[in-house]
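Researcher: Before we compare anything, I want clean individual predictions. No alignment, no superposition, just each chain on its own. First chain goes here; please echo the sequence and then give the structure tokens.
Model: Echoing the first chain and its structure:
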Amino acid sequence: MGSPLKLQGVTRKFKDTVALDSLDLEVAEGELVALLGPSGCGKTTALRIIAGLDRANSGQVWVNGVQIDKLPAHKRNMGMVFQSYSLFPNLNAQENVAFGLKMRGTSKSQRENRAQELLALVGLPDHAKRFTHQLSGGQQQRVALARALAFEPDVLLLDEPLSALDAKVRANLRDEIRSLQVKTGTTTIFVTHDQEEAMSMADRVAVMNGGKIAQIDAPDVLYHSPADQFVAGFVGQMNRIPAQVVKDKVRVLDSLVGIRSIHEFQRTDLVALVRPEALKVAAKASGNCRVVARSFLGPMSKLLLQTAEGVEFQAVLTSEQSANLHSGDAVQVSVKPGDYLVVPS
């Protein structure tokens, strides 16, 4: 089983650039937390500091109640999987998986048995004697994952492990990694810039911005209750629709909705951040919008809509609901309660 992980006030500066700004993070035993954010937000720096591949300017890293930030990387019980696999080309799959055990002085029979066990766990029981060039990209990443788990690490660190794979392999391996993580109970940090990966795999997602965690929550909470404009815009798709204050409510399109925002509303130039699926659309000759285009996506369809003022936004409906809506049709659009955030424009 994994161990609880804690980062306390971790700061990392590179000359005049602050990569991490007094970062605090706690990960429970057996939990998978995704660090999600754009390039340069600090997520990979945080991972490298946990692994011991980089040192913080200040702050502490704890695993299982023991402070480890002064320990060298080889004395931290961390398993790590990189984007580039980093397998040894001169070793076969079994030897790659067993490599960490060999460095720890494990007997040959024990490490061979453990390697075979892990290769079976990642679905490659018949690939033990194959070398790197004889494996596909997805198979190489499975071997890298087995190697990282072989010595039962306290924490498993995954640094964009799927980004080099094609879409279908990436989707399959994403599910396999999550299933494997649950089976082994290994505490895991998963770094990614792909929101779909983060939202589908993690127990909690930490959205990072400017070296800080903007919000950390379960995926559904993050999606439906973003803390601010950055999180709302980075997680999922958000429309920006003009809004006006009407007494203690806000008018969005023709809907009066309750105010749900951290901002004061002394200003009149406001926008509502509304998810595409939080819009109701119905054909109506005197409607407040018109259909610009419809995109069929299987069970769901996406509508590009435009207000009389020329503001464009998108709605997502079931394909059955939108089957009779075509380019140029007039429609009435309203906002469902809940999924919106009103902010200054």
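Researcher: Okay. Second chain, same rules.
Model: Second chain and its structure:
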Amino acid sequence: MTTIVLFGGPSDERHVSVASAQNIVRALGSPLCWYWAPLGAVHDVAPAARLGHPRPFELDVLPARPAIWPDLEQALDTLPVEDPVFLLALHGTVGEDGTLQRMLERRRIPFTGSGSEASSTAFDKNRAKQLVHERVPLAESRVAHNVTEIAPMVRDMLARHERIVLKPLAGGSSRGLFFVSRDNDAQDVIDKITALGIPYIAEQFLDGRELTVGVVDRGDGPAALPVIEIEIEPGTTFDYEGKYLGKGTHEICPAKISEEMTRAAQQAGVAAHTALGCDGYSRSDFIADRDGSVYFLELNTLPGLTAASLFPQMLAEAGISFADFLNAQLALARGAAAASAAEQ
């Protein structure tokens, strides 16, 4: 099978996608690389060109060659190689929310990561919580599906909690993240969120340790990776700049927590992965409060695979090379495709 690394996409997380693709290309050597441009066109890009793109977290890709296909659907319908397998280096809307996965499933093209149903469910933070709640504790939350519900949601949650966290209902990379306290004027944040015009979720702020847990299946079932703790400097938040530009945050791998808390976080990571029906790998975020309880926040079906990302750090701490991880994911995708074909 021919490996095609697909990256970019129309999401506002495409910069992270480009950096993930760079790291993947370094590990795999010379796979085929397709850049999915923000407006939909698909470019065949030389791996060397990907490695040379500067400041991927901040600058858009400007392909040197014209697009080969006007959109991804046409690219998938006129594949120039036999027996392709797609290694998805995509994040955010369309690439991670099940839309792309459905495109590939309809055409019976194998791909890495979770299928369309699990991807769609995990991308909607409220739906994910509904499936996970029987296995892992949750912070209280409310959802505003339209702009008229945002102000009442914020006011209601602040009446119940001293501090809340606001984030897009569907999205990642810590984009659009806001923290609001009861003693601060929330109107400015309400105005900003209302202007975005997208569904938002408000969560009770839990004062505790920020933990994240990767889960990986290398062919023998899902297993938890080492836990990472995110330490945040006073006056900063774990937003996009903190996560990818190293501003105000420190990542400790493995987390300096008790064996009991480590075990609880890892068990919660596997429980969330399983409850949502994920395949291949995932990464879940948690808060451990002062009494040691681990609360689920969200799960990423295609977590960042950049050189600065959390998931590769966990792999390294577990003694799993990045190349071995990628090859195992490709093998799982091929195996799933072969099993599906045998059933037809």
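Researcher: What stands out in the second chain?
Model: Residues 166 and 178 are 5 Å apart (CA to CA). Additionally, The chain has twelve helices and 13 strands.
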